[in-house]
Design a protein that fits this description.
Strand content: 5-15%
Oligomer: single chain
Radius of gyration: 15 Å
Distance between the termini: 17 Å
Strand order of the largest sheet: 2-1-3
Number of helices: 7
Length: 159
């Protein structure tokens, strides 16, 4: 198990020894989620272009609907957790939310992008105003990085 890549460990979480499963779920899931989270931020928001924009329009009803549905899903997470956009090898997008540090990788899915909706991500600036944080977060999404992740998913290289 120790030599297994993280994405494989998370995909096979149910097969791992019971004695390490919780640690892998919390620490491994947290590492995978936060690695993606920091990678896709630092941009200036706006909207994606090209194939990614076409996929958002096709599968999620366009940017406005994506933001509305994503923010609503993030607002429904009780306590700590995440809201994600998942992506298949064929490029199909879907929304998912997970508690704590769980990740869609545990369900055999790939994560295109996601947002940490636990208060530690926003409390200093937004206190308990998660909806305000979710709305503002779109202003720092780096759509070029998200597009790179989308291309990698289509090539079977997104882990």
């Amino acid at each position: 198990v120790a030599k297994m890549p993280l994405h494989e460990m998370l995909a096979k979480i149910g097969e791992l020894p019971e004695s390490i499963r919780t640690a892998v779920r919390n620490n491994g899931g947290g590492h995978a989620n936060h690695t993606m989270f920091w990678e896709i931020m630092g941009g200036s928001g706006g909207e994606p272009k090209g194939d990614l924009k076409a996929a958002i329009d096709r599968d999620l009803g366009g940017m406005e609907k994506l933001q509305t549905d994503f923010n609503a899903a993030g607002g429904r997470v009780f306590g700590s957790g995440w809201v994600f956009v998942t992506v298949t090898r064929e490029g199909k997008l879907a929304l998912a939310s997970k508690p704590n540090q769980d990740t869609p990788l545990m369900d055999g899915q790939r994560v295109l992008m996601g947002n940490d909706v636990w208060e530690h991500a926003y409390y200093l600036k937004y206190q308990n105003r998660r909806p305000d944080y979710l709305k503002a977060w779109w202003n720092v999404v780096n759509w070029d990085k998200v597009a790179e992740r989308y291309a990698a998913a289509r090539e079977g290289k997104l882990t």
